[in-house]
Amino acid sequence: MKKNIFILISALAMAMVAKAQVVQHLYLKNGSLLNGYVQQSGDGRLIFCSENATIMIDGAKVDIGFHVYDENSLDEAWAKWASENDAYDRVGSKKTLTLNSITFTGFQAEVDSVAEWSDNEGDDSTYVDKSADDAKPAKVHRFSYYLQQKRNIPKVKVLEKGIKVKYLELSPNTYILSWDDVAVIKTNRRAKNALSGIDCTYRLQSGESVDGQPADETKYTQSLYVRGGLTETFKVNDIVKYTYHPVNASQDIFEQSELLDIVHTTYNDEVRGIVLEQSYMSQKDSENYLLVRTVSGDMRKVSMSEFVSLRREKNPKFNPLFDVILAEGEAMVNRQPATFVGVKEVDEQLALDSLSIPLSISPTGTGSTKVSVEYHLAGVGNNAEAYQLVKVKLLSEKKKVKTYGFTYKDLANSVVRAYNVETSINGTTKAEYMVGGAGTFALYDTKNKRAIILNISQ
Q1: Which of 97, 344, 440, 444 is packed most tightly, with the most Cβ within 10 A?
Q2: Burial of 297 (0-12, 13-18, 19+ CB in 10 A)
């Protein structure tokens, strides 16, 4: 079975993070940390695209160069890092940052030498240089060998030096690794306010099924984040089938997956989409398969005997949804914190205490304005509309004191109806309205006799 080729699929498209490039955190056995995602896997090797990395190397085999950069000449990533870590050197009002270059002095082999990846379980942390003339070819750590081929690594920040050198790299990079270099690959647990993503169900040899969010994985184990804040770990060889499913049933799966899977086959074609199933229930590759939902919407079944390679790339349709966590009684309008005013009944009219603290809402550019109110109210059922959106008018003016509000007739005949109301797993209800025209409006909480005042501009 070609099982180990695919076990990395389950870690992808799970983490809701600020940068789309950082999906996984890969920890190497030598202490290095790469943040990004596995782009390709197969034959015991990984290609990892990093957004940033902290690298450990042998200090005896490198020279460290020093280069001073003025604050204004730094790129955004280094300027942000220097500011957050108080790393600038200051002379008067001038701020500079010293960065480094790494030059390898103990290079083991030529860049274009013929070499092979060793699969010897008894010596699984080394790279064998077959180009050497010696009867016993030199062996170096695989990851170190890959770095040494670069000869020189510019614009990094050395954090530690001596017998070991640790440096920070903030530029995107690509690393070729062996599973034997890897200690663990971690995926962050999905945020509580994430409303989209992809979960996985493991079918075990015992017949048991376990569902959750893929978490950590090593060469021989995989973990799931399961209910109750627990993490459950399994041997890879005990898992006979993986089934992937979207967290949000009302959102397209392509909007919930951060990366696309591209499967290359023996027919010299590629299947682009999202892997929905991996089945290893047979001892024959021809009977094991991948089930892929393609970008065109079709389903494609690829047997393991047809498989050549797998790679991944960023998904342009990725559109994660996030909830807001609100305390009881709190509300937000278009993600702005809302303040309430009291509402009093006076002769069939509903008068507002004040208009002094309205929220300003801008049009969407379509001739109408979208108003989205999110709230958490006790006693209000799921998917229940708690507010009535009504235009505010002048009710009376006595001794130059103006009273604004609306009437029961307005509530019966002139309210703007919500076109969508839904309640998240966190108990936050969102009601969405589309308002035509401009003016002052009130979101009226009928149960608690209070309102949120909105000014909608032209």
Answers
A1: 444
A2: exposed
- Contacts of 408-413 with C-beta under 8 Å, sequence gap 24+, read 408/348, 408/349, 408/350, 409/348, 411/350, 411/444
Residue 152 contacts residue 59 (beta carbons within 8 Å)? no
CA distance to 19, 128, 145, 247, per residue, from 13 (Å): 12, 35, 30, 11
pLDDT of the residue at 227: 87
- What pTM value is reported for the model? 0.73
pLDDT for the residue numbered 333: 95
- Find out whether 308 and 290 touch, Cβ atoms under 8 Å: no
Q: How far is 262 from 275, CA to CA, in rounded Å?
A: 9
Residue with tokens 């690829």: 302
Alpha-carbon distance of 431 to 338, in angstroms, equals: 14
Distances (CA, A) of 415 to 236, 273, 341: 58, 44, 19
Residue 79: partners with Cβ closer than 8 Å, 6 or more residues away: 71
Lowest mean pLDDT among 94-103, 165-174, 175-184: 175-184
Write the DSSP assignment of 257-322 as a string of letters.
-SEEEEEEETTS-EEEEEEEEEE--SSSTTT-EEEEEETTS-EEEEEGGGEEEEEEEE-TT----B
Which one, of 446, 443, 381, 456, lies nearest residue 416 by Cα?
A: 443
Q: Which amino acid is at 197?
A: G
- Cβ–Cβ under 8 Å, residues 389 and 441: yes
Rounded CA gap, 213 and 198, in Å?
7
Mean pLDDT along residues 287-299 = 95
Q: Which residues contact 126 (CB under 8 A, 6 or more apart)?
A: 118, 139, 140, 141, 142
Per residue in 100-136, pLDDT (tens digit) is: 999 988 655 443 333 344 433 333 444 444 444 444 4
Cα–Cα distance measured from residue 72 to residue 68, given in angstroms and rounded to the nearest whole number: 12
φ and ψ at residue 364, rounded to 5 degrees: -85, -5
**The token pair that represents 193 in the structure block:** 């306010």
Token readout for 324 is: 């807001």
The C-alpha angle with vertex 83 and arms to 193 and 101, in degrees rounded to 5, equals: 110
One-letter identity of residue 230: L
Residue 201 CA, chain-centre distance (Å), reads 20
User: Which residues on neighbouring strands pair with residue 456, listed in sequence order?
Assistant: 361, 439
Q: With contact defined as beta carbons under 8 Å apart, do 60 and 45 qualify?
A: no
Task: Specify whether the CB–CB gap between 278 and 242 falls below 8 A.
Answer: yes
Residue in this structure with the two tokens 């390709």, named with its chain if needed: 40
Query: Token pair for residue 13?
Result: 């498209």
